[in-house]
Amino acid sequence: MLLKPEQIKQVIGNVSKRKEPIKGYIPAAVLLLFFEKEQQSHLVYIRRTHGMNIHSGHMAFPGGKIDPEDSSSFATATRETCEEIGVDKEQYTYLGEMGFFDTLISSHDAAAHLAWCPEQPKYEVNDFEVAEIVEIPLELLYEQFQCDLDPADFERMKYLNFQYSRPGSSEVFNLWGLTARITHHFLQGVFELLSMSAER
């Protein structure tokens, strides 16, 4: 599956969005960074190191809490992405945002921003925060997409997950929680885009 930047913008424009953060929650922001490799769209995920906080060891998008000096949630996403994996704004083009998504257990509310890198990003990993970078083909995520899953179905959303193993490896990376729900929301938009294209 190969989505061009304009198609990703179409997805962003079509998905439903919660535009206001939840009062009392910890404000945060993440960056969904897309790039093309071997004629397939990939998404950049990170596996956090152990021993840092409640999210230690989890799969995530680059991102973190909004600092008072950040001018916007996108500024937070870009700052955290640069701090965690060394990818600065010069490497990618901003595409838009998908609104806010809250965690189910830690009271964080994250703005999800999307960007396109014209080539595989050049990383400088912060070993204190990031155990490894995991680049997942969008096609493999889409194969696990549940088109009948209602976001309002709390019980099913609570157990939503995506799994990925690198070719030739038995290690399984498990996306769940906030990361899985943001991924699912984007894939819902992809599903609708492809459905509309098929009807034409």
3D structure, described in words:
With 200 residues, the chain is of the alpha+beta class. The chain has one domain (5-199): Nucleoside Triphosphate Pyrophosphohydrolase, CATH 3.90.79. 28% of the residues lie in helices and 31% in strands. The chain has five helices and nine strands, in the order αββββαβββααββα. It has helices at 5-14, 73-85, 138-142, 154-158, 177-199, and strands at 26-37, 40-48, 59-60, 63-65, 93-102, 108-117, 130-137, 161-164, 173-176. Strands 1, 2, 3, 4, 5, 6 and 7 form a seven-stranded mixed beta sheet that branches. A two-stranded antiparallel ribbon has the order 8-9. Helix 1 (5-14) crosses helix 5. The longest helix is centred in the C-terminal third of the chain and has 23 residues, at 177-199. It is globular. The mean pLDDT is 90.
